[in-house]
Amino acid sequence: MNDGLSRNYTIYRVNFPDGKENVEIVCFGMECLDTSVTGHYMNIRDTPKWVQERIAVLSMLDIPSLSVDGIGQRIERHVYWLYAD
Fold first, then answer.
1. What are phi and psi of 37, to 5 degrees?
2. Which of 56, 59, 73 is nearest to 12 (CA)?
3. 28-70 per-position pLDDT tens digit
4. Domain range for residue 23?
5. Of 1, 62, 54, 10, whose CA–CA distance to 31 is shortest?
6. Residue 49 falls within a domain, yes or no?
7. Is residue 4 part of a domain?
8. What is the Cα–Cα distance from 72 to 59, expressed in whole angstroms?
9. 7 pLDDT band (50/70/90 cuts)?
10. Is the residue at 2 inside a domain?
11. pTM of the full structure
């Protein structure tokens, strides 16, 4: 684990606003102009596979978590930052 800043990642904020099924994904940075990942999803299973995998890893960590290189960070109970190359 490190500070997450040693590499240039595109950062996605993933939020479960109702704490259950609905997922909101927002991308930060200039690289986000070409992304199709952002938006609202009815269920985590509707998100891209890489999002599901990173959320699964981060959901096992304490809140707030340290940054996991190449994965992301758990910020709050229902809020995650995901790193994408």
1. -80, -30
2. 73
3. 877 787 778 889 999 999 999 999 999 999 999 999 999 999 9
4. 10-84
5. 10
6. yes
7. no
8. 11
9. low
10. no
11. 0.85
